[in-house]
Amino acid sequence: MPGIPGLTTDALAGYHFSVEMDSVTIGQFQEVSGITSELDVIELKSNTPDGKYVLHKLPGNRKPPTITLKRGKDSSMELWNWHQKIYQGKVADARKNGSIVLYDYGNEEVSRYNFVNAWPSKITVSALKSGANEIVVEEVTIVCEELERVK
Questions:
Q1: pLDDT in tens, 22-58
Q2: What is the DSSP string of 108-149?
Q3: Domain 17-149 classification at class level
Q4: Across residues 10-27, what is the average pLDDT?
Q5: Is the dihedral of CA 125, 116, 103, 108 positive or negative?
């Protein structure tokens, strides 16, 4: 049965993605989470003329997402130095724009989420344990002012 033009039936694989900052692909991340779009909800409670309770739900302000990146820890200082700019009070220098890009099985870009004015609010390194046979994981929490899906 032929498909409908422009309609794909193949779901995307969660492992085929990249992270860009200022249009440059950075690092090799094993996990990205927090790609969300959310609005506050305003509740307006009132009564009708005959005394019935009515609850209206209205859209409120947008809630910018908090994006979390995880990767195997390496010797790179890039993310740490970016985070340090906030500690040094260089907020304007720390703000970056970036993208999370998803690819299909043919390695073609099929989805792109752009985030604006992002900066790392937290960096966590997994527990270190003598004799363990595990990779050290670095987790970076990135806050942003806006997230939009452009593709």
A1: 888 887 889 999 999 999 999 999 999 999 999 999 9
A2: -EEEEEEEEEEEEEEEEEPPP-TT-----EEEEEEE-SEEEE
A3: mainly beta
A4: 83
A5: negative
Angle at 71 between CA 130 and CA 98, to 5 degrees: 155
As a whole number of angstroms, the distance between CA 39 and CA 20 comes to 26
Parse the chain into domains and list their residue ranges. 17-149
Structure tokens at 68: 């979390």
| pLDDT attached to residue 1 | 46
Residue with the two structure tokens 């500690």: 87
For the cut 70, the answer to whether the pLDDT of residue 113 exceeds it is: yes
Please count the CA atoms within 13 angstroms of the CA of 81 that sit on its side-chain side.
5
Task: Please say whether the beta carbons of 103 and 19 come within 8 A.
Answer: no
